[in-house]
Amino acid sequence: MQLVLATRNKDKIREIKHLLEDLPITILIFSDFLDFPEIDETGETLEENAILKAKGIATFTGFAALADDSGLEVDALGGAPGVYSSRFAGPGCTYDDNNRKLLQDLQGIPEDRRAAHFRTVIAIAWNAGEIETVEGRVDGIIKTQKIGQSGFGYDPVFYYPPAKKTFAEMSLAEKNSLSHRGKALMKARDLLITHFNLMKDSGKQDTSI
Ligand code: ITT
């Protein structure tokens, strides 16, 4: 049983692998393939882009492929950056550039109007034609400055009130236990367990029949 992660984002790969590592599935990543293609994210929604990526990589590799499309949606910015989260500050921008632009765009806006949420849509293409999607969401607040060193992307500015810290102040395990990606991945695990006929509790293959 093999599953390819349809992403080149090493930070996402780390989080996804952490939540799937106990399943008896071989996880393959972009560096396991020659000429792993770059799939253009031409969709207008996270779901469309997740499907494009999963389908493209399943077609290229011949293996089942799991794609994650995620975005930060900020209420005061009408849901931006949303589907454009990775290129918010322009082509070729870094995580830091994006955070700087976000903090600038929200300058002067008080904390009670800085609500935001992360959303992740995960698409699994079992083959080029058969695709399932699941979703996860987490609500928080955008801080006025970066806090914390862990995580990636917008994590240093995304404050999670129940834990009284930003995502960048959390360990990988803590973030995965409550994040948008963690929630979507728990649903994706169930799809994998059913599809590959794995036993739910032990993570071992069911050979009873
Ligand atoms: P792939 O398309 O190759 O998977 P990507 O980085 O382009 O990688 P997305 O299109 O899903 O991925 O872009 C989402 C962007 O949103 C990402 O680059 C980060 O800046 C941000 N992001 C996604 N998940 C995040 C998380 O858990 N914490 C903080 N920021 C996140």
Explain what this protein looks like in three dimensions.
This protein is α/β, with parallel strands linked by helices and 209 residues long. It has one domain (2-195): Alpha-Beta Complex (Maf protein). It is 29% helix and 22% strand. It is built from five helices and seven strands. A seven-stranded mixed sheet has the order 2-1-3-4-5-6-7. Helix 1 (10-20) packs across helix 5 and helix 4 crosses helix 5. The mean pLDDT is 95. The site of inosine 5'-triphosphate (ITT) has 21 residues, from strand 3 and helix 3.
The CATH architecture category equals: Alpha-Beta Complex
N-C termini distance: 18 Å
Tell me the major beta sheet: 7 strands, mixed
Structure annotation, total helices: 5
- What is the CA-atom radius of gyration, in angstroms? 18 Å
Encode the helix/strand succession as letters: EHEHEHEEEEHH
CATH topology: Maf protein
Helix content: 25-40%
Q: How many strand units? A: 7
Query: Would you tell me the overall average pLDDT?
Result: 95
Class based on secondary structure composition and strand pairing? alpha/beta
